[in-house]
Amino acid sequence: MDHRAEVSDFLRTRRDRITPSQAGILGGTRRRVSGLRREEVAAATGISVEYYARIERGDLRGVSTEVLDALARTLLLDEAETDHLHDLAEAAGPSARRRPRPAEQPFPDSLQRFVDAVSVPVWVRDRRMDAVATNPLGRALYAPVLEDPAARGNTARFVFFSPASRTFFPD
Predict the structure, then answer these.
(1) Helix, strand or coil for residue 132?
(2) Which residues touch 157 (CB under 8 Å, ≥6 apart)?
(3) What does the pLDDT look like over 57-101, one tens digit per residue?
(4) Tens digits of residue pLDDT in 110-157
(5) DSSP secondary structure code for residue 130 in this structure
(6) In this structure, what are the phi and psi dihedrals at residue 50, rounded to the nearest 5 degrees?
(7) Among candidate residues 78, 71, 56, the one with its CA nearest the CA of residue 10
(8) Could you tell me which residues come within 8 angstroms of residue 57 by beta carbon, excluding any fewer than 6 positions away?
(9) CA 29 → CA 7, 21, 74, distances in Å?
(10) Quick one: pLDDT at residue 108?
(11) Based on C-alpha coordinates, what's the Rg of the chain?
(12) 164, 170 Cβ separation under 8 angstroms
């Protein structure tokens, strides 16, 4: 399989597996596609339909890291799929930049002991809005966010991709 066909197949299959409701798109029941339309992916990613169509045709030359990350969020890609998308872009040409991998730093045991000792709900997030530590009350309070498969413990993903967020965060 050539590179363009691999990119095209990868993006099309990921687009097809997401329902409009998973992406937070309200619409009628009359759809010719089960997944997202190109226009919907482009709008949710913040790029033009023409640019997304070019990307889905397999032309990743010059696509920025920010666009690739936005596309990964829109298509609900997991970490391995996101890395694969970046690898495909890197293979497309020298102008695609590789995103730096954030350094994984474990939550210090001493801080976790403090969090566990607090008698109110505690929820600690990193700069990407991922839950990094909670105490038992925090886990109970934020269970909808922590257990939501679309959110994967990320508050931003929960707010934008989970219908349950409207109940959990009514305002």
Answers:
(1) strand
(2) 73, 129, 150, 151
(3) 999 888 888 899 999 999 999 989 998 998 888 887 654 444 455
(4) 888 898 899 999 999 888 888 889 999 999 999 999 988 878 888 998
(5) B
(6) -60, -40
(7) 56
(8) 4, 8
(9) 29, 11, 21
(10) 84
(11) 19
(12) no
CB contact at 8 A, 48 and 81 = no
pTM above threshold 0.85: no
Rounded to an integer, what distance in angstroms lies between the CA atom of residue 112 and that of residue 43? 40
Q: Which residues contact 61 (CB under 8 A, 6 or more apart)?
A: 92, 93, 95, 96
**Per-residue DSSP letter, 131:** E
pLDDT for the residue 112 = 87
Angstrom distance (rounded) from CA 65 to CA 100: 9
Tokens in use for 135?
């105490």
Residues written for the chain: 171
**pLDDT of amino acid 9:** 93
Rounded Cα distance, 116 and 25, in Å:
39
Residue 24 is predicted with a pLDDT of 73
The secondary element (H helix, E strand) that includes residue 21 is none
